[in-house]
Amino acid sequence: MTLRTLICTTAMAGALASPAAAQDYCGGIGNGQWIGGNEANSDIAASDSFREQLALVLLGNAHTSLFTLSSPAEVRLEAAGRGSGDPVIEILDGSGAVIGSDDDSGGGTSSAALLALQPGTYCVQTTSWDNSPLTATVRVGRTEHEALTEGGAALAAGSAGTATTTDTTTDTASDAGTMDAVTDTEACGGARMIGSGPIDGSLDAGISVTETINATPNWAFELSQPAALSITAENEAADPVLTLTGADGSFYAENDDYDGLNSRIDMTTPLQPGTYCVGLRALSDGGVPVTVTLSAFDPEAATRALYERGEVAPPLDGSFPITDLGTVSARSVSQVQMQGDTAQWFRIEVAETGLLLIEGIAASSGDPVLRLFDDVGREVGYNDDYGQGLDSQIAARVFPGTYLVALMDISGQSPLLRLVMERYVPAQ
């Protein structure tokens, strides 16, 4: 069967099998299918078991699953790809507002999210992380229903423990000097409050709390005035996933692996006065202490952090260290001593149109990653783990001009790497 035949067959099958069009739901996002086959059978609050369907995603589109709730319920939403597929899920309410999203919390490349929802109609959109064709199983159920993924089961187990927080005393730091006074609050499901009262904007020094995710999967904080802030969750042994919501359940942001396996959320638009909830999930060890810190958002520091992680090209004005390697004429090899996972930046000049081959090679150990940018900051190429090993390689067609190369290492060993460049010109 050809790809064209498969697309046409799938479109016809969807038109025949879909008993409802999603343009009537979730802000009119497009055609969708009831997760239970029809609207009556897709009421997750009243169902005796989970509901699931097969999602076929082609040409960068999304598969939309519809479900309803006749009463409030804690709903688990999961997607597991078949083969090498990497699904990403996004949950929308009846108005089309995004109330949750996830990638990889189900374990491996699977997605999982746990949301406390009110009665209404909801949509789950499943997409492919890298826009390649995807076949995935989508499952929607309550916490007592069987989970599709290991991460989904862990989410339900963690949720079951969130209602047991009854301690009203003030705690002290288990990690000296890192915990401010915390008390319990009725907000955010009885979460523990970060700080001893409303935060008045004095976050320059930061406020930190340290506890295991198993013991405290939820925190809360209260703002007395608008504040742009950063929230971090740190301990790579736990591999924490960080979620920010409002006390009313409104979703703001979620992050996993911002800095190594640590997580960070930057709210660049000031949050308005009110109470906010910080949710934590451990993808590894939930029994190790994780430090959660609230601090004032620093745009300069945030921008520099992007340069240091190699995600954004720094300016060429000398404000950030860049090693000038000159014009790439034929073949060059540079020895680079890495310092943790901080990117090392290199400037090169290309005199003629041609093919530029760049390799990051571990001299003895390491896991190099490469990124290539043009002189205005557009990413031209990216690679991690070329071929069968951990070395990286970028092959890109380039034109005369200036380019920036970011070399990183994600092994955590600060190894010695070799940066190899070769230039090829078109045959005459």
From TrEMBL:
Keywords: Signal. Residues 152-176 are annotated as: Disordered. Residues 1-22 form the signal peptide. This is ABC transporter substrate-binding protein. It comes from Histidinibacterium lentulum. The lineage of its organism: Bacteria, Pseudomonadati, Pseudomonadota, Alphaproteobacteria, Rhodobacterales.
